[in-house]
Amino acid sequence: MSNTNKGIQRFDLTGRVAIMTGAGKGLGRAMALALAEAGADMVVTSRTMEELESLAKEINAMGRKALPIQADILKPESGEDVISLAEKEMGHIDILVNNAGINIRKDAVDLQIEEFKRVLDTNLSGTFLFSQAVGKRFIKQGSGKVINVSSIMGSVTLPRQTAYSSSKGAIEMLTRVMALEWATHNVQVNSLAPTYFETDLTRPLYEDPERRAFIEERTPMGRWGQPDELAGAIIFLASEASSFITGQTIFVDGGWTAW
Length: 259
Hints:
Distance between the termini: 43 Å
Oligomer: single chain
Mean pLDDT: 96
Shape: globular
Strand content: 5-15%
Strand order of the largest sheet: 3-2-1-4-5-6-7
Number of helices: 9
Structural class: alpha/beta
């Protein structure tokens, strides 16, 4: 077998089962499809079953298994419930991608405590609870990959991002702590930090001429990201190609954080 083929195999996810939260649309959907294209069977969750069923059909069309599960990440029991059902239906779990998240853009002086808590409960507590539940399984089986979706706003920020940046910065520290605790069990925990990507969710920002121009001027590559440009990073972190990488954050940002 050639060295080239061996290199390709390092990125092959055939036989692996991945859970993706917040998979119904946007970057979550794009990353779920990327993992399926690399060979993974997918357990996909969000609050909207219709979106999940559409995604599951696309994954099935690739010849992969897909299990859509409607779940509200704000409910503390959701992580354990989803993972237990995934084990029952798919047999095992190899990869968890914590992608579900929200943002409430307000000046700090106007942000209500209920709004602040809602963002942190969704983005941070949801990530923790899913990771905790799957981490117990990964430690027992002696392998696993946890990928927490952060944001460039976890390291740099802009006005009106009080809650969001707080949650994403905390996710990166949570990633590092879990990576340290689980390293000897062959469980890698990393985070992925995207910049502004052109999706239906960001369309209002993209269609605002002033906002769009600011983002393009601030990004050294001079443009927004496209969803499929996350594929390489998510497959890398989910595959054996990243077997000696843990506790790290990979920025997919067109150079934004290089300033």
